[in-house]
Design goal:
- There is one protein chain.
- This protein has 7 helices and 20 strands.
- It has about 350 residues and is an alpha/beta fold.
- It starts with a strand and ends in a 7-residue tail after the last helix.
- The structure holds flavin-adenine dinucleotide.
Length: about 350
């Protein structure tokens, strides 16, 4: 039996989480689906320990702390999370409602869908060099989940952004050897991290190499390392037990691209009054949407979620008159927030 509900939010990043809050204030409950095992989207998955400086009223806040606070803020509205499952199919039923299916087989019958799906299901840019395929997820990885497992190993880290540099700095004295391979001399990572990394080269088993990976080398069925071409085209064999690729995410809407929405450069066009897409009943907030002047910032997602909530309420209850109420003073809001303000 499908789960029958008013709203399903696809994506538990900051926009999806704040969408729960804004809907809750209007007395609308939501289910939230995310492909990742935890809520938080890019903040939790890509930069949990990094400080963010442009969240209103927080001069600085850690990315994971922001997510934790959002989760605390939405508690009164008891959202139901369905994690580790990708929404794979969405179809409109004869009665105008939507049937939504996830990779785990969960089915929803919902009046409204909110796309808060960011860059789509997280798909790291993959190493496509000759001979790489059989080693994917065996000796070629795209995330580090158990760093202690790497003690005493020879490893290669590929990339020049913050993730590559952060892991290099974290692991350089815990592994047997580490080669950081970046195709260019300039790095995209924070200058302070680059300076720290350069200071360590030669003083720890850390090497820096600039070049393009051409081939994965194996011998007798064993992963041996990577062949990398330097700027002169000369090939170098970098031996290692495992390689970790941090080339960022490849934006890919995944199944959402098949749902007949008006899409521009892998982003979903919305009406900025309600954040409804070209399909009535499907709304889009956060990094996934586009409109003139769009900026992919967390605070944009928050603003969009507030207006989308009013648009969703109008769609669900067109007969109801909606008055804007302040959370400071409205007894109705206090009741919805579970506050005891009578005494
Ligand atoms: P996301 O955070 O991308 O979350 C989308 C979620 O949807 C993901 O969890 C994904 O798994 C899920 N999903 C997608 N498709 C499906 C599907 N089909 N089924 C199920 N789940 C799905 N912004 C700032 O404002 N200030 C900053 O300082 C800042 N610093 C940043 C630093 C870095 C290193 C990065 C990478 C980004 C930074 N950003 C910053 C950008 C900010 O993180 C994004 O704007 C924000 O995360 C967008 O939130 P979102 O909820 O729209 O999408």
């Amino acid at each position: 039996m499908p789960i029958t509900t008013d709203v399903v939010i696809i994506g538990a990043g900051p926009s999806g989480l704040f969408q729960v809050f804004e809907l809750g204030l209007l007395d609308i409950r939501a289910h939230v689906v995310d492909a990742l095992p935890q809520a938080g989207g890019q903040c939790s998955e890509l930069y949990p320990d990094k400080p963010i400086y442009d969240i209103p009223a927080f001069p600085v806040i850690g990315a994971q702390e922001l997510v934790d606070r959002l989760l605390e803020q939405i508690q009164p509205f008891k959202p139901q999370f369905h994690l580790k499952q990708t929404v794979t199919a969405l179809e409109r039923q004869d009665n105008g409602r939507f049937r939504l299916t996830t990779s785990a087989g969960t089915e929803f019958d919902t009046a409204v869908v909110v796309l808060a799906a960011g860059l789509g299901p997280f798909q790291p840019r993959r190493l496509r060099a000759k001979g790489a395929e059989p080693w994917q997820e065996r000796c070629i990885h795209y995330r580090i989940t158990e760093p202690e497992r790497l003690a005493g190993k020879d490893i290669i880290i590929l990339g020049g952004g913050d993730s590559a540099l952060d892991w290099t700095l974290e692991l350089h004295d815990k592994v047997k050897s580490l080669v950081l391979v970046h195709r260019r001399v300039e790095y995209r990572a924070q200058p302070a991290s680059v300076t720290r990394m350069k200071a360590l080269v030669g003083k720890s088993p850390l090497r820096e190499f600039h070049g393009m990976v051409r081939e994965v080398v194996e011998r007798d069925g064993q992963f041996l390392g990577l062949k990398v071409a330097d700027s002169e085209g000369e090939m170098h064999l970098l031996e290692a037990d495992e390689a970790f690729v941090f080339w960022g995410l490849s934006p890919n809407l995944g199944p959402i691209a098949e749902w007949g929405l008006d899409i521009e450069k892998r982003q979903v066009r919305v009406n900025t009054e309600t954040f409804e897409t070209s399909e009535p009943g499907i709304f889009a907030v956060g990094d996934i949407n586009t409109y003139p002047g769009k900026k992919k910032l967390i605070l944009s997602g928050f603003h969009e979620a507030a207006l989308a909530a009013f648009g969703i309420q109008k769609r669900l209850h067109p007969e109801r008159k909606v008055h804007l109420q302040y959370t400071t003073t409205s007894p109705v809001m206090h009741k919805r927030l579970g506050l005891d303000t009578e005494s």
